């Protein structure tokens, strides 16, 4: 697959925030909700092709990561997302074989609508085979279609669509009509090939992205709000329960610097991409403690509400390496990853690398371990 077809989710989280915009189907409330606590606790694992030779897809690396996610992070769910059906399915199999619940979600962008629907169908058929073999699987038909699917918002690429959104070069009513039409198509394709729980990952602003959740079995929300009081989160999330369906937080998290939680879904927007090499804007103060505290606080809210699932975004961001001795080029500051990436040769695109756990990893691991 060509690199231009892949999407680096860390760069485009809930772009609407920048606009000032606000098996059998599960019953309305899960058993966990009835007694309190989440049903599923997990992490997002993105399976893109990689932006550089050094971050290219590696099946061996993936297998070790999945082992760590189960045995050291103590997650019980893996949200497998990204592009490339072979990468998605290989990761889903590994997770299932290790006894993890699989939340499988193809995220393909900047290609014709037909290709995206074909990817949903192919991935969904695989998810159904996995489910029939006894694996625990939910299938999501995609993520924030307004951003990734050409023809809903003007622009041939994600970058162009984001720019048009920021500038207001959008016919909002037409956008919503196109979004509703494509979401219905995707749901129909997913339903035709997958017979377990079907979902979708929507932006959290319902005015911006209205979704007919009657099409799905689980309400899925990419959630990046910031509030000072837990009650405000509960008030905001409670409106999604009116559909009488389980609510999954398909993404939540922040970056590791002071002020990142307050920036919500735009915390990633601290990199000057016009520079070569790219560099961090402003004088950010790195703080892994801030990131860890934010994730734990949000998880506590989700647990209290007894939601169906919560998946922290994300396990690792290979294309945002940490440079502890060079703050200006420490791209990990713009990463939502709960691990930091260390390159053997920082200036070499082909360099090998490894990840190290951040404080957020350890904080989540402690919480998840208590619930296993």
From TrEMBL:
Keywords: Signal. Coiled coil: none annotated. Transmembrane segments: none annotated. InterPro entries: GH, TAT_signal. Residues 1-33 form the signal peptide. It comes from the Bacteria. The keyword Signal applies. This is Abortive phage infection protein. The lineage of its organism: Bacteria, Bacillati, Actinomycetota, Actinomycetes, Kitasatosporales.
